[in-house]
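Still learning. Any example?
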Amino acid sequence: MSGRPNVLFLLVDCMRADALGGRGVATPNLDALVARGVRCTQAIASASSTTPCVATMLTGLYSPRHGVRSIGAHRLHPDVTTLATELARAGYHTVAEVTGPLGTESGLDRGFAEYRVRPASVYASDDWGRALVDRLTRRLLPSPWFLFLHLWELHAPRKVLPEHRARRFGKTRYDRAIASLDATIAPLLAALPPDTIVVLHGDHGERIVGSTLAYRWYRLRRDLLGAARTQKLEGHETDVYEDLIRVTLALTAPGLLPAGGTVGQLVRQVDLTPTILDLLALPIPPGLDGTSLVPALRDGTRLDLEAFLEAFGRVRGTARDHRRGWRTERWKYVEAPNAPDIPPELFDLAADPQERRNIAAEEPLQVETLRARVAAVEATAAGEGAALSPEEEAAVEARLRDLGYIE
């Protein structure tokens, strides 16, 4: 087993598809990493909130089957096998360093020998990050290892280092956080063994205010009037529009994938578990919702994939907030299953990439086709997992309040 490569799954919370190269922010360290592998320019998240997305990427299943259908209060279905479980069986030492809402109450620690949840206020530029780099530099992780590393730098309030607060590092706080992340991540990348497989990914996207001045006015209004009385102009969770479900994805695998490649076809978060197992020449469990992307990554083979989408709304929202939909390379369909008074939406992304014109009434056959595909995924539901204990519910509540999801 010692001959297998180590695997770093580098998950950056809120890392939009345009975070690298599309916002005019210099990211030389991340660019060098991506240049050694293959970048997917149309990677689609399964949801617009962290916990369901992580459950999907670590199981190869959509939420009706894995059971994690909110940011908190739902646990991974007991019958589900995770990527960490499969890798542990193959002799990998499995480690997760996570933050935000990814507490052990979700069941996402399944298969990990080490699963550590740090406060969201602890960043890779702090002592914790330096200790992790030291652990990698000194080769203290038993090899081969699988490290699932979840970073919070781009999530609000966004971590901007003092040296990156100037306008030349971007006009928004999000942009400056990208520049800061790139500088912070350099020692970590330098500490990796040369044959390490690296998956660079965003869990979901982010809606952001487009200029520094507009952002300052927005934050001032929220500070003066309070979040409850101010429209939220930044963030995620609430819908499945493109800025929230298109994410960064790049895979570097020396000797296994070409360097400098680009895949422009639609690929999905649900495909990551089978892809990593395939790269390691390990068996892929039957019956997954995802499929291996390796043929597309190696030589551009067409896979003709389509994606199921969900948004679960605010933590203290109602069932009306739920959105689900379907994404093809051309079409986006969105419905509100618990709010029949809200009409479905259909967008022709080829003609209307900004999703400004709902043409559902003009394309009833397309609507019915995509609605049936959504229903087919929902029909695979495995039922509710075990309920959280009162102690677990209290821990989730406290964590979400600390994160600002509960006022």
